[in-house]
Amino acid sequence: MQEAAEHLLPTVQADEKDDGDDDDDYSQAEEPVLEVWNGTRTTAFRYFATLYSFTVMGMNDGAIGALLPYIETFYDISYTVVSLLFLAPFVGYIIAALTNNIIHHKLGQRGIAIIGPICRAVGFLSLSLHPPYALLPFALAVAGYGNGLEDSGWNAWIGNMQNSNELLGFLHGAYGLGATLGPLIASAMVTKADMEWYTFYYVMTSLTVLALFLTSAAFWGATGKEHREKHPSSTGSGHHASTAAVVKKPMTWLLSLYLLAYVGVEVALGGWIVTFMLRVRHAEPFLAGITTVLFWLGLTLGRLILGFVTGRVGEKRAIAIYLLLSMALQLLYWLVPNFVASIVFVTLLGFFLGPLFPAAIVAVAKLLPSDNHVSVIGFAAAFGGAGSAIIPFGIGAIASSSGVWVLQPIALAVLVVLLGLWICFPGGYRKGGLEEARRRHEPVGNDLRAVVRWLERLVRR
């Protein structure tokens, strides 16, 4: 079966190397030995601290969808206005993308471990005080900056470890676990305990303060000096890659757009599922909340289970298959107007969406030298996090005039875009193709050109 599948896929040969700045991106300099997550007690402690931090981040992102209808009622506002809660973190994520590299260079991972949780705690504390609605977006922007720093920093660090597919699977599985628990706790507090929506943020503030102590203790020795020594420039100049240099790399923008689309569709589905199930599928409030819980549970299981499959199949091939299955499930979720069927489709959709983020990080880590990982992956992860603001906000704005049913076709369209972006990554569809693409200096878009040539040959026949 594997050999047959390979014959059906276009064979990708290296095109001419692009001119310009890409020459240094694919340096063939000798790479340092990859870090092992449990190689020392300190590294293991750091890894578990990031797992806890991602769990808390997931709780916040998962709960916002369950709380959205109650925030809308509390402030008596429309879909468009309440959707600003999704758009607000965009500012924070963009600033995180621009400052992540310099914080690593000056303060090291210690800076990320301190600044990130502090910003999240300040944002959550502000939300718990239920200020006038006009102040909510500012609170979420501050929290978004903290999320963006930690998201980018910990993804770049773990993406450059041994067994990174599995380790990133657990990291994002921790996020998914939090996103599963968040709406469950929030829905129970609001619908069963008759609490106001903002009481959930008392819990979030407390958990984030604990995250601050954990990550600060774990990464206290990870200073800027240590970071500069571990990640010297591949050019041999000794200077770190500036943000201006990072944004000139095609790989940076391809990964950024891919993560923006992925995070956008993930948060849009998780955020609007409750409202969709209430208004379109006419579900009971608690059952609607359970639907988003199952979506995040599927996402968590997908990251934990498929993380062990993806590396063995090959990232390019595995993610292409997961995307095609996700598109089919999204189409079924849209067209089959049955509550029970919707729950099944949503859970499976989450399962196959789960590994799409960590696998992309692993793929780029294989395509680039290690000293580019923090700069490129860090920028892209933070910039991509802005998708959690743009796409859910767009859905809310359109839903104000057309209805929340628009969630389904928009989500399907974004998945199609994701597949197109994934094809643009070099490396072909055979296992080991990413490493081969790096050795051959294959440019971004090489696989897409190969697919076009393959289709042209089919048409001529």
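The record above closes out task 2.4. Task 2.5 opens with a second protein, given below.
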Amino acid sequence: MLIGIDVGGTFTDGVVLDKGRIITFAKEATDEQELSATLLKVLDRLLSDLNSDAIARIVLSTTLVTNLIVTDRGPRTALLLMPGFGLPQTAYDLAPDTYFLKGCIDFRGNEVAPPDTQEILAVINKIKEQGIKNVAIAGKFSNRSQKHELLVKTMLEENYPEASVVISFQIAQQLNFPRRAFTAYLTARTRARWNQFIDDMQEAMKERHINAPVHILKADGGTMLLETAREHPCETIFSGPAASTVGGLALTINDRMNSVVLDVGGTTTDISLIIEGKPLHASQGAKINGKLTHIRSLAVKSIALGGDSVVCNNAGLLKIGPEREGAAACFGGQQATITDAFNYLYELQIGDLSLSAEKMNRISAELDTPVMDLCREVVDKTMGRLQETITGMFKEWEQEPAYRVWEIVNRRAFRLDRIIGIGAAATVIVPRLAEELNIDYLVHQYSPVANALGSSAARPTLAVNMHADTQADLFTIDPGGIQGNLGKVRNLQLEDIKEITRRYLQDIAAERGLGEYADEAQFTREEQFNVLSGWDRMGKLFDVGMQIDPGLINEFKGVDEI
């Protein structure tokens, strides 16, 4: 049996999946201040009629790290940058407590300028005086040579042992210094709280005599083991939209229709795209607070519009959201919501229709507008907002390589076939939206818990990138910032480098418990450049990427039909 639990902004859902059938599910209101407690409430409800020995795997999707970042509640964190020469310091507006250090590495990993140890010591003392105990270190081209970052880390450990230190080359090995630095900063800021969450979960599993592996859902729609996730908290951002996307895959397994996944929650709506059975990725990485990162993520967007968005009179004008003040009126809430407007207009018989009528009639009287006209206006504005957002997302999606490749291969403009509705409010909103867009839609009997279903069925993912420099006799592997020597073999070919990359992916996959998926990994990047001096070739540079794509675990064969 598989367990999936998704912590949403409004509700936390959990399912137990056994042989293609959801045998039980649970829902609890999410307490933003006590996410762990909410999650464990759902887990305990799922376990009440189960033998824990029968559980094969548990996957958790949590908003913990996302909340820490977007609400600015993480601890004060210092960012130590070694940007080298070129751009002014004002170009690196990444964190409030940023300190710039001397030292420069070039793109081949050669030292251009050494660090100033006295300057480093002075900065360490400033950080210590201000009581900042979380520090991220990032040097330009540290993914080519780690020695400057390691020097600063060593000095911090010797002179300020209380500090918790993150170095950027262990977080990401890709080029683009600002993204790597910002990713390291976010990691340093969230790691302590994230590790406390992992400790809490591991202790909770022990208390409940659960021996099954526990995974965390990542932003790219894949999973990783809970223990592996300790050093990578930021990979769990946007896990909610990722869960709904994989939930859409789970509801339409072996389906190759181009689909927008619309997860209509109580507070927000998450939107993503599936192209012929594969989720669309954000090729530039996740964007957080307007800044790009090196975090692999699906191409998703969230808007502050949900089924429980309040409908009210605002100084004589109709106002819709973004606030949520509890459940819809038809479910006993105190305020009229979007759900109530749909319920009354279309006589959907959701909850207590008379309560929807009562709240909508009150607002219509306040606005001196016939109640049916008011409901139509709410519906029209909701549909307009969703259509506008989807249209805007397609303009962004058009820039993604996978989207363009589809158009080239199919020799025609991309065509959207369907909307997949996820979330409890999808049954209300998605059929009307599909009618407006004149396309097909799917709202499955499991749509209200599809996020948790997606979590339970998501497969592990892994991306490995290798950079090799035959002249320098050096290679670097990401993740982990592993470095080694090639053995002075100057006649290495691209196929040789691909084979080395494949071996490292298999080794890392085995360490992370992903061995059964290693053979399904595919190459995503193959680049080779000659290094010339005069008329002579002095060596070669290689960049190779390989990954286990997101999808569904091998044992998942789909869910029962409606």
